[in-house]
Structures are given as C-alpha cells and as structure tokens.
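Input/output pair, single chain:
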Amino acid sequence: MERPWPRSRAGADADNGSMVPPAAVAVLLVVAAMAIAVALALVRSRVRALESAFVGVHLDLASREEALRAADRSRRQMLADVSHELKTPLTALRGFLETLHLSDLELDPQIRERYFHTIERETVRLDRIVDDLLDLARLEGRIGALNARLFAVERVFQHVMLRHEHETRMREIEVDVSVEEEADQIVADPDRIEQVVENLFANALRYTPAGGHIELRAKGEGNAVVLSVVDSGQGIAADHVPFVFDRFYKADPSRKRNAPGSGLGLSIAKAIVERHHGSIGVTSAPGRTAFTIVLPHQSAEPHHSTSTNL
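Output:
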C-alpha cells in the first residue's frame, strides 16, 4: 500500500494558517465594534455637553439681553425725568427774560424786581438739580472713596437740628433726639451720613404741620446701628411708598412745582446708605412716617482709627 507523501512542515503550517483569519477577523470585528461604540458614546456625550453649553450660552445671552434692555429703559426714563425737571425752570427763565427784553414794555420797578428774583430762584434750582444729578451719578457709579472714620451719631443729629432750629421754633415743631449708648459710635463717612439725615429731616419738616413733632433716634441692633427719622405728618399713601426712593418722585403732585428740593434727596440718601453696605426703608400711616436706616457698626474701612467726635 502506497504511503501518502508526507507533507512538509511548511505546508502543514500553511494549512493551519489558513484556519486563523476567520477567528482573527471575528476578534478584530468585535474589538472594532467595541471601539466604535465607545467612540460613539464619547461623541454623544460630547454633543450633549455642547448642547448644554449652547443652552447655557443662550440663557446667558438672553439674560444679558434683558439686562441691557432694562438698563436702556432705565436710561431712557432717566433722560425723560431729567428733561422734564430741567424744562420747568428753563421755561420760566426764558419767559421772564423775554419779557424783560421787551423794549416797548414798561414794567413797574416792583414787578421787575419780582421777575429778577424769580430768575435767580430758578437759576439756583437748576444748579441744585445739576449738582444732585452729578452726586447721584458718582454714588451709583461708586466713584470716589468714602472718608470713613469713627464718629458720634448724636453729634450728627445735633448738627442737623441746629441747621433747622429757626424753622422748627417758628412753627413750634418739637424735635426729640434719642441715641442709645451702644449706637453712638460707628465707623462710616460722617459727612455722607449727615447728608442722609439732613435729607430725611428736611423731608420730614416739609410735611410736618405746625405744632407737630419729629424724632431722631439711634439704637443698637446686633452688629448694626439703626437710625430713624420719624415725623407726625400726613403720611404717604400705601401705593406711593414703593416709589419714594425713585429719582424725581414726589408723592403729592400738587406740591411738585413749588417744592424746594430737587426731587433727588431720597435717591441720594438711598445711594449713600447702600455705599455703606446698609439698607434704608420707610413705613407710613396717617400721622406717622418713619424712615429707617440700618448700618453696620463698621460700614467701611476707617481712614483714621481715632474718633473725630464729629
């Protein structure tokens, strides 16, 4: 019987090798599929992250757009308010000056004097409005540092009282001052705090009837000092209370034309208090209106560590 010719080792290896590719291909396909699956998962994850980022950017842009619109509305309202406030004295000035320039009009000396007095008054009013607008812009823009130092609150109250002593005496308005010991010394800008108290006191005096009373109070409350200016005036209607700190806002329109202030006093007071990291609010009812200021004991870094007794 003829024996089959023995195959060489190379041939055997070739035959064995012919069986490897299908298994290898299968393994490679599985590995490739897994790699593709992982890659797709990573891509999907990245796409979701990008989608989230785009949503965040969209919301941020929408928020910024709304903020810009609000700022633009505020700017437009501010311009309208300023234009309105400046137009009134300017119209009065133009009218009186045109009258005085009429060559064929003979004016009584007393009438002429009254015209000049009105022109002077309206000029002072214009100057006050411009100064207050600049001051408010500096405060709200946080331009300039506060001259903070330790000072006595009671001394500030006394300064304000003395400034209005003549009017309170003539109108028989009683002014009551009360300062608790723990509330007397605070670190803040004394000139600016006095400006706040002055604005609030002048406002209270304007609406307090003859024979009424005004209170200036300071008390400690935790780590803060609470200053109050309370008057016995007619009060502020509930629907006007939320707007009393707005620029040029006056709760009684009938008094707007002849009111001595610029209409910015309460806005400036609010800006000063907020620069000191404090808060200001108002409550009102017929016969009692209270403006309340809350200030940290140390509302700003002092420039000097010793009391000025101001």
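Confidence is low (pLDDT under 50) at residues 304-309. DSSP finds seven helices and seven strands in the chain.
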